[in-house]
């Protein structure tokens, strides 16, 4: 196999993977490779994979199959991300791949690609003590809404979850490294930063917590908006709740997964919070920032979940009224405690529960959007719409908004929200402030 000249990175799964995918692209570009254009066949395809549920994992193997070209040849294939970490050399046995690289080792991607070009399958799933971040090239050009990983890994060991195994222990990047990257992202065109971590609100460095980091980043003039995701209820400190009141640039949106409404199920999940302790946190957050939009994650059909326990999830959802949410059928993951629990739920039962839960969540999401009609608000313009003259962007509450405008990508535009659907709103432009 010859050395690749063009590459494509395809990311699946969470926003941390999107961030890692961008950084791998920058790394390959720094080696003199070029990103293949839309529709152009790349010499190297990096599949940046997700292992969180079985379906996501299976996708890797079907994607590898799809890379075969009509003449029978195929590009160099690198499997990165959490499937690479979890399955390691097994991937090379199951499919034709050239590189397998874990989420903590991808700074070595160019060396692995060079090794693969010389004809050896190259594998690196180490979790080195030294962070990969120092070995990555500087940020140059980014979209107006950019991700910034500040923390990785998880020590919580929820019994259904592979993250503590694939991403490893909780590690916070140092304050100064994050602050420097935030400034570099601002110089590279970012106006909104989303701070990322599997447990982002567990971020800590020398006595500083996430709220200190948010306050510091808010001092960067070009950064107009700050978000963070994803959080654990137990790390929702009073300091963090207070910045929702005190820092204007922190957007009124909180993704705080609860997973289930039954205390027995939460205990079996090893969540170490109850439904009522979760609701008390949300009360405090709403007191600090009354217009906050709430979002969450849910799992239905966890082993042993009864009909009555599932009803408790619906009850909690009714009480919170999420602006947006993600809900999943429980998927047994190899190596996790829940996978070995008795009383796995029949798929048909889990399907039915998921449908009921999603119908309720969708109704609340639509209601939240409809309640926004008439609001005057700022929208960060992220891209062009499908129709000529139409632009698309996000409201502070993370709603997609489309409107007619001559604004540029990266502008922040004042709009009035005039109509709403389940997934987006239409607005009319009021005044425009230049970027
Ligand atoms: N099955 C189904 N959903 C899961 N999640 C994590 N592990 C599993 C699993 N084994 C969901 C949780 C988590 C989100 C990222 O994915 O809701 O918050
Ligand atoms: Fe997984 Fe629980 Fe850690 Fe979230 S907190 S990453 S669900 S183990």
Automatic annotation (TrEMBL):
InterPro entries named in the record: Elp3/MiaA/NifB-like_rSAM (IPR006638), Methylthiotransferase (IPR005839), Methylthiotransferase_CS (IPR020612), Methylthiotransferase_N (IPR013848), Methylthiotransferase_N_sf (IPR038135), MiaB_methiolase (IPR006463), rSAM (IPR007197), rSAM_horseshoe (IPR023404)
Keywords: 4Fe-4S, Cytoplasm, Iron, Iron-sulfur, Metal-binding, S-adenosyl-L-methionine, Transferase, tRNA processing
Radical SAM core domain mapped to chain residues: 140-367
Record domain MTTase N-terminal: where: 5-118
Annotated positions binding [4Fe-4S] cluster 2: 154, 158, 161
Cofactor entry: [4Fe-4S] cluster
Subcellular location, record wording: Cytoplasm
Catalyzed chemical reaction(s): N(6)-dimethylallyladenosine(37) in tRNA + (sulfur carrier)-SH + AH2 + 2 S-adenosyl-L-methionine = 2-methylsulfanyl-N(6)-dimethylallyladenosine(37) in tRNA + (sulfur carrier)-H + 5'-deoxyadenosine + L-methionine + A + S-adenosyl-L-homocysteine + 2 H(+)
GO molecular function: 4 iron, 4 sulfur cluster binding; metal ion binding; tRNA-2-methylthio-N(6)-dimethylallyladenosine(37) synthase activity
One cellular component term from this protein's GO annotations in UniProt: cytosol
Keyword Aminoacyl-tRNA synthetase tagged: no
EC number: 2.8.4.3
TRAM domain location: 370-431
Binding site for [4Fe-4S] cluster 1: 14, 50, 82
Cofactor note: Binds 2 [4Fe-4S] clusters. One cluster is coordinated with 3 cysteines and an exchangeable S-adenosyl-L-methionine.
Gene3D superfamilies: Methylthiotransferase, N-terminal domain, tm_1862 like domain
TM ranges: none
HAMAP family assigned: tRNA_metthiotr_MiaB (MF_01864)
Family: Belongs to the methylthiotransferase family. MiaB subfamily.
Self-association and partners: Monomer.
Function recorded in the entry: Catalyzes the methylthiolation of N6-(dimethylallyl)adenosine (i(6)A), leading to the formation of 2-methylthio-N6-(dimethylallyl)adenosine (ms(2)i(6)A) at position 37 in tRNAs that read codons beginning with uridine.
Protein's name in the database: tRNA-2-methylthio-N(6)-dimethylallyladenosine synthase
Organism: Allosphingosinicella ginsenosidimutans
């Amino acid at each position: 196999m010859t050395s690749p000249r063009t590459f494509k990175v395809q990311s699946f799964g969470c926003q941390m993977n999107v961030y890692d995918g961008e950084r791998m692209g920058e790394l390959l570009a720094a080696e003199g490779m070029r990103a293949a254009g839309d529709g152009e066949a790349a010499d190297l395809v990096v599949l940046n994979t997700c292992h969180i549920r079985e379906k996501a994992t299976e996708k890797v193997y079907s994607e590898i199959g799809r890379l075969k070209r009509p003449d029978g040849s195929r590009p160099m294939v690198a499997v990165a991300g959490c499937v690479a970490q979890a399955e390691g050399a097994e991937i090379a046995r199951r499919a034709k791949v050239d590189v397998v690289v874990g989420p903590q080792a991808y700074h070595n991607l160019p060396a692995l690609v060079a090794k693969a070009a010389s004809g050896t399958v190259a594998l690196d799933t180490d979790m080195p003590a030294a962070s990969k971040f120092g070995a990555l090239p500087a940020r140059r050009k980014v979209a107006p809404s950019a991700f910034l990983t500040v923390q990785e890994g998880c020590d919580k060991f929820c019994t259904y979850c592979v993250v503590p195994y694939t991403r490893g222990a909780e590690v916070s990047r140092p304050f100064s490294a994050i602050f420097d990257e935030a400034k570099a992202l601002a110089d590279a065109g970012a106006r909104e930063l989303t701070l990322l971590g599997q447990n982002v609100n567990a971020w800590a460095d020398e006595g500083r917590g996430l709220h200190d980091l948010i306050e510091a980043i808010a001092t960067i003039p070009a950064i107009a908006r700050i978000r963070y995701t994803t959080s654990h209820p137990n790390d929702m400190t009073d300091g963090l709740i207070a910045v929702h009141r005190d820092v204007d640039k922190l957007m009124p949106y909180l993704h705080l997964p609860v997973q289930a409404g039954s205390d027995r199920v939460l205990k079996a999940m090893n969540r170490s919070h109850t439904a009522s302790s979760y609701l008390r946190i949300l009360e405090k957050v709403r007191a600090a920032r009354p217009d906050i939009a709430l979002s969450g994650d849910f799992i239905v059909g966890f082993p042993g979940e009864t009909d009555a326990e599932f009803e408790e999830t619906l009850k909690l959802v009714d009480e919170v009224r999420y602006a947006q949410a993600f809900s999943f059928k429980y998927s047994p993951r190899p190596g996790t405690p829940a996978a070995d629990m008795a009383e796995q739920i029949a798929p048909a039962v889990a399907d039915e529960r998921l449908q009921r839960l999603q119908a309720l969540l969708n109704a609340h999401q639509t209601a939240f959007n409809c309640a926004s009609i008439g609001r005057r608000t700022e929208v960060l313009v992220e891209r062009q719409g499908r129709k000529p003259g139409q632009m698309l962007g996000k409201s502070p509450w993370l709603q997609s908004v489309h409107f007619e405008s001559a604004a540029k990508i990266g502008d922040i535009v004042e709009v009035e929200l005039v109509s709403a659907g389940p997934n987006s709103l239409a607005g009319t432009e009021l005044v425009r402030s230049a970027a």
